[in-house]
Design brief:
The complex is a heterotetramer, with 2 copies of chain A (77 residues) and 2 copies of chain B (154 residues).
Chain A: E1 2-6, H1 8-14, E2 18-21, H2 28-39, E3 48-51, E4 54-56, E5 67-71
Parallel strand pairs in A: 1-5
Antiparallel strand pairs in A: 1-2, 3-4, 3-5
Chain B: E1 3-6, H1 12-17, E2 26-33, E3 37-38, E4 41-50, H2 52-69, E5 74-80, E6 82-85, E7 89-97, H3 100-117, E8 120-126, E9 129-132, H4 149-153
Parallel strand pairs in B: 1-5
Antiparallel strand pairs in B: 2-7, 3-4, 4-6, 4-8, 5-7, 8-9
Helix pairs in contact in B: 2-3
Classes of the chains: A alpha+beta (77), B alpha+beta (154).
Protein name (chains A, D): Molybdopterin synthase sulfur carrier subunit
Keywords (chains A, D): Nucleotide-binding
Family (chains A, D): Belongs to the MoaD family.
């Protein structure tokens, strides 16, 4: 299983801080599409992704145990 | 630990103390505070949320970038999370360098990079609603709607 | 009193507190510290001397110049006099503004102006001697050997 | 009488923080020359002047009670 972390509006929309999902072998884009549909997530086209706390491209393939995070445009500072 | 996410109010002096060095002639600090009015709209309070382990890593990355770009620089950054009221401190960046121009430039670089790559988000609360704020960079536009690879890993 | 000459060690936080305002989103501080090495020469300690009443007036003038140039800015500056050891604080400049770019620029302006017009002098003490240091501006040259009228009263 | 304030190397050279002098009617340049000679002061060509805590030009005429200051290149900050 893989842990999918959600933040900001995505967390509010999903009503969860993270989702657990079998994502091994899927790409980041696959997972994005999958959870977007299931949880009615919005603005995913401007959302970055991370695998194991490093930014990742849409076509990266997820490995066993990887932690995925979907990262809306940041607004710290 | 020069790079921290804090649930408690930030002690500015404690952040400054981390960069004091005998080789430094200048220390600059940037203190980001919660402003009441933005474009005439009144903010009641803010809530900051962070992807903490990644945010700390990205703050460290910014520190390393600065040390590469400005010789002899020391850097410390603490960012607050949770509910913040008007005038509360959201972030403190302290940079020390041998010469003052570097201290200003490196500090400014740090805040711009925070706004590009550190996974922290703020939700503004007004009298008539609330909203997660997206990218608010004042100096960089992302035509593609997101930072380019070169921005993220510079 | 936002502009002071102090015989006692400067409390950075106290200077910062003077510029906190509900309209500010950014506070920058510049902390000038005594550096051990300058061009490879080892400083033991410094002595700062000021023409105090005029120095305070000139600091106030700088504050007014900043308020004219950057809308909504608040400024506080304290400069130390007397004997200072390595890493001791010589000057603290705090500037708050609604937007961060102004806070950096106004702060930098303040330190440059201090080095032009505020009657404060430092005497460096090395192992092999001592000397009153003259104009050390890193960014401005005075071909005539002194500031022009326009520099003094801008 | 007028008070002539000295600072930095000028103070060291004169061995005094200030000098009292009848300077009324003289220009700043006159006073500079006068005390330079009397106290063997150096580097006066790069020294600015102030009257009553405001920068003054060499040709300004000193009034009764004015406080003059000779201000070597500053090095604060």
């Amino acid at each position: 299983m893989n842990k999918i972390m959600l933040f900001a509006h995505l967390r509010d929309e999903a009503g969860a801080e993270y989702i657990e999902l079998q994502a091994e072998g899927k790409t980041v884009a696959d997972v994005k599409e999958l959870i977007a549909e299931k949880y009615n997530l919005t603005k995913l086209d401007s959302t970055m992704s991370a695998i194991n706390e490093e930014f990742a491209e849409d076509d990266e393939v997820i490995q066993k145990g990887d932690i995925i995070a979907f990262i809306p445009p940041v607004s710290g500072g | 630990m020069n790079f921290e996410i804090s649930k408690e109010p930030i002690n500015t002096q404690a952040v400054i103390d981390k960069v004091v060095q005998r080789e430094a002639g200048a220390i600059t600090t940037f203190i980001g505070t919660v402003r009441e009015l933005t474009h005439g709209k009144k903010t009641l309070f803010l809530v900051y949320e962070a992807y903490e382990p990644m945010a700390v890593k990205k703050l460290e990355q910014i520190g390393n970038e600065i040390k590469d770009k400005w010789a002899g620089a020391e850097v410390a950054i603490t960012h607050r999370v949770g509910k913040l009221d008007i005038t509360d401190i959201a972030v403190v960046i302290a940079v020390s360098t041998p010469h003052r121009n570097d201290a200003y430039e490196a500090n400014r670089y740090a805040i711009e990079r925070i706004k590009e790559i550190v996974p922290i988000w703020k939700k503004e609360h007004w009298e008539d609603g609330e909203e997660w704020i997206g990218n608010q960079l004042e100096t960089v536009a992302y035509p593609s709607g997101k930072p380019e690879e070169s921005d993220l890993n510079e």
